[in-house]
């Protein structure tokens, strides 16, 4: 929690000091009011001094008005401070996650990152608001109430001394019951968030395999756990206020009972009794507020730890301190005996890979599922870093290049095309936010996406749902290719980006790409042999190793693995034909 507050207190210390001054003034005014009330009763009502009642009563109204004003200002300032804390944490959290590589993303997972950036930060924010509202008022109210009650009547103060241990014990027992429940709450929230995300994103396969009932049961199981936990916490919380107010009322009853004897014997003025009852209420309420803060603290602490786990996670892929600058980048990509192994894995995903991809040439990568094709492309744009060997861009190790500039040199079309909510135009502008409509239209035509986009009434301004779910798989792929073409980078990486296209569209797209990519380095991962038949070099991957390389004709002659891939696809086409 301290780490969360440290930088924030440094920035807003003046506002927090102002808040503390406001709370101190408001609390002192609250403590002063029972004394004035006692004076009115003792000096005015009992003695019949009407002028004194008017004079002191007017002064009480002024103090009350000032107290209300200070209280409103203090709550406004405290709320603003807490809201700013939440806003700043969310901003830092989001920026941190944006710097995550695939390693950190796989370490946490989307579900828990969503929970931590929303619910966890909200819990810290709410605790901060509660803390700022009582951090000064509760201690001053407690100490001031004790001092003033003792000054009024020492003997009556023994009642408070007898009640306080019982009061604290009741709150402590409730806190001990509630704190472990709060610790479990965030984990259950993570679980339900993860299942919801799975089911929403996987709604199509759920329906295709008629798994609705199974998924409902799976969700109900986690949902019921969260429900039971909430009910358990709710039961504990419902006991807090009845027990606390019962103790307060019993204390007031005891004070009134013994106070009546003191008044009857002349040892205590009647006004002092009313003041004493108010001070007792202040003491017990301040303890209750402080205890509530300690009950809320464990949950906020758990949330703060979860937030800090993200903020303190070391970034595995960083910019070099003194990046190398390329004066005229050409786009030559070279792998030098490169290997990569996931953390904790026994074997390398790719092992001792060496090849050169040059501008004006198409380098194709083919192999069975799990051969390491996608991983190889991910190493080029540093979504992962190679565990051994080098990857060079124009002869310079990519680890020595500025990350942003390296990504500017590369256009990447992922295996699963993802579109952002907005419009077709806003998605294409991800490639180049300064591109005009003519440039966007040319990219759409090359990607064979022009027809279906302009069949829509709004053309470039057609709506795109989150993930592009209002388009088919092939349409999403073509829009993703168009987005990459708008970028006009030196290297274009196609990660099986033609898999959802029919053969005719695939052929037209590759034909229209040739003049645009004639001076660019193109690396294509593909399953179809027809897609890469005319590539300048084809790399055949098997179990993470390059078993052979060459042109289509050369590989047919010398590579058994490649021949098997070709034959299997020819048989498939014959069966489908």
Task: Give the helices and strands, then pairings.
Blueprint: H1 2-45, H2 50-98, H3 102-108, H4 110-134, H5 137-152, H6 157-201, H7 203-208, H8 212-264, H9 270-311, E1 333-340, E2 350-357, E3 362-367, H10 373-380, E4 388-393, E5 396-397, H11 403-409, E6 410-413, E7 422-423, H12 424-428, H13 437-446, H14 450-454, E8 463-464, H15 473-487, E9 491-495, H16 503-516, E10 521-525, H17 529-532, E11 537-542, E12 545-550, H18 552-558, H19 560-576
Parallel strand pairs: 3-10, 3-11, 6-9, 9-10
Antiparallel strand pairs: 1-2, 1-4, 4-5, 7-8, 11-12
Describe the structure.
The structure is a single chain. This protein has 577 residues and is of the alpha/beta class. The protein folds into 2 domains: 2-311, ABC transporter transmembrane region fold (Up-down Bundle), CATH 1.20.1560.10; 333-576, Rossmann fold. 66% of the residues lie in helices and 10% in strands. The protein contains 19 helices and 12 strands. It has a 6-stranded mixed beta sheet with strand order 6-9-10-3-11-12, sandwiched between helices. The protein is elongated and about 120 Å long.
Kindly report the average pLDDT value: 84
Q: So what's the CATH class of the largest domain?
A: Mainly Alpha
Strand order of the largest sheet: 6-9-10-3-11-12
Structural class: alpha/beta
**Count of extended strands:** 12
Helix content: 55-70%
The radius of gyration is 35 Å
The largest β sheet comes out as: 6 strands, mixed
Number of helices: 19
Uncertain runs:
none
CATH topology-level name of the largest domain: ABC transporter transmembrane region fold
CATH architectural group of the largest domain? Up-down Bundle
User: In percent, how much strand structure appears in the residues?
Assistant: 5-15%
Q: Any idea what the CATH superfamily of the largest domain is called?
A: ABC transporter type 1, transmembrane domain
Indicate the overall shape.
elongated
